[in-house]
Every structure is written in C-alpha cells, then in structure tokens.
Model the fold of this input.
Amino acid sequence: MAFFIRKNKVNLGINESEIFELINIIIKIVRIFSRMQGQSFIDTSKKIELSPTLIRDLKYCIKGLKDYYTYTNKTVIIKYPKLVYYTNYDKFFPTLDIKPYDSQIEFIQAVKNAFNERGAISKPTFIFYRTMIGSGKTSASLALSQLVRECKLLDAKNNNLQVLYTCLIGSVRVQVGRYSYNKNQTFALAAM
Done:
C-alpha cells in the first residue's frame, strides 16, 4: 500500500494531508488490533490474537510512508491540526485514546458525589469546572454524559437529567457532537 501511494502520488493527485490522515489511521488500526483477540476458526473454544505478520506489515507500511513524506508529530500539529483530533476514517474506528487529566477525574468524582446510590441528585449542587485551554473540558463532557446515562438506567425518575454543554467556539461544539455520536449518545447542537 505504501509503495503504491508513493509510486502513484502524482498520477492520482494525492495530497499530503490525505497521506498524513492515512498514516494516522493506520497507526490507530495497529494500536487497536495488536491487542485484540478473537475466536479461532480451527478450535472455537480458543481465543487467538491477530496475525503478528499483519501487524508487522502495517508497521512497515507506516514506516515507509513516514520516511517518504517526512511525517512527524510536529508537522501534523503545525500543518494539519485537525488530524490530531479527527480523521475521516474515525467513523469506522471510533475510539478515543485519552488518558484523563487529574482535573477531569476530580470533576467527575465531584459530580458522582452529588448523586445518591439510586442515581438521583441527593442535594442541590453547583460545580464550576474551570481549567486552562486544552486541559480536557470538551472530552470531560463525554464522561459526564455517560454518568448521566448510567443514572437514567438506575432509576426511571432520572429520565429528566440532561447534560447541557455550552461553548462559543463552533468547532468545539462539533467535537462534542462527534464524541457523543461515536458513543451512541443522544445529542443536539445549536448556535445563536
């Protein structure tokens, strides 16, 4: 694949951003499938891992593309920052490789503490989550939505619980929508 792209780049009109996007998704595929197990076709009682040869071939493909196009994380961040958060292939591989910040963990814990064992709010609570830019407010909305969803499942009386995420930046609202969509959560976007 890497050889085909390098050989036909000019003929097919493939631009660098598409190549970088492809490299990103192949990296994600390797990360997802290298730790995945499935049922053996030969003996259905056994679990097997994906072929190490396939993973090695994909890594070789990544290396070939990275070397040929001088791909670096710095180049991606400077030239194609969108690819840091989202690629067009994410709808096929909807995963988030995010380790929560300490502030996110504290935020979700504070919200959890406001609920009782039935998932209802035990006392009126106001939590003001204020952190610097890029510290996880957007991705924390996904954890908060999941927590609210779990509370609704615990008790039907909680069905009126909703998460209202507000932000002046349109691209951030869209990112929250993408997170929700990838996790099959009901959501709506609006702008004034």
